[in-house]
Amino acid sequence: MSENDGFWDFYWEHRLLPMENLGKRAAILAASRLIRRQAQHLGRPLRLLELGCGEGQVIGALLDAHSQVCAVSDSVGVDYNAQSLAACRRDTPGLRCIEGDFTDPHLLASLGAFDLVLLVNALHEVFSDCFSPRLGEIDVAAAKSRVEQALAGAAARLEPEGWLVVFDGLDPAGDPDRRLRIRFVDDQARRHFETFAQQYRPLRITYRQDADPLSVELPQRDFSRFITKSIFLGKKLWETERLQSYQYFTEAEYRAAFARQGLAIAELSTLTVNEDKWRRLVEIETPGAAFPDEHILIAAQQADDRKRG
Length: 309
Prior knowledge:
Layout: H1 3-15, H2 22-42, E1 48-51, H3 57-65, E2 76-79, H4 82-91, E3 96-99, H5 105-109, E4 114-120, H6 123-128, E5 131-132, E6 137-138, H7 140-155, E7 158-169, E8 179-184, H8 187-199, E9 208-209, E10 215-219, H9 220-229, H10 238-241, H11 251-260, E11 263-271, H12 275-279, E12 282-284, E13 295-302, H13 304-308
Helix pairs in contact: 2-3
């Protein structure tokens, strides 16, 4: 590790200490490494774009830390939430903040090209927006297609040597209908699950009560939805979080979607950020089963043939 890497490790360790969202922290660390690499290679100020930027915690931290090598006034944050954008403008002066839908191809085409494009906890909202009143849940086929369209739109904003960073939810590998037997630590945790199953809207949660009142059997995919979303129960955020599915692609589906867009994955990691809390609430009784990684981080560039084109 170089001396410069050591400095940045120390810097981010302290800068991100107050940030509770471990997923955003992982995305910031990965993007920071790419910015430093690009700055040395390109020798010019970098332009950053974050789609679904919210209050700007990610792009704001990166521009602040790397202001000497990034063109703040030529960087852009896009979000549909006017209140969040107001906070973004306040906290990141000079950043161009655009209110709008980042899946709109006309909006995207007006932005230009960027050296780093960020999609941090954004694509699962695209997936969740495909709720079908007729089905009473998300139209999964249509939703996955819309996610890939959004991915294509983001990839189209890349400079020839630009990077796309995606951080979002991850569906577990293997058979999604595989049955798991789980046991809650107490009645309160069991009621917590019942409330989740009743109020979670994107996709139906199915389960079967076991003879043990604290145990249930449910599909692997529904268990993954429970452990990623139940952390918001009882909090103000639950009113919006219960409307969104954090999971939509498996790792294999991510890889295939990136390949179809001509994107070469240089870095991919899966991780979990809430396992300690889950273990305080529930035990997996199915032999060989474990708590799944529920997040994925991907950094990719256009494949060499696309760069030349």
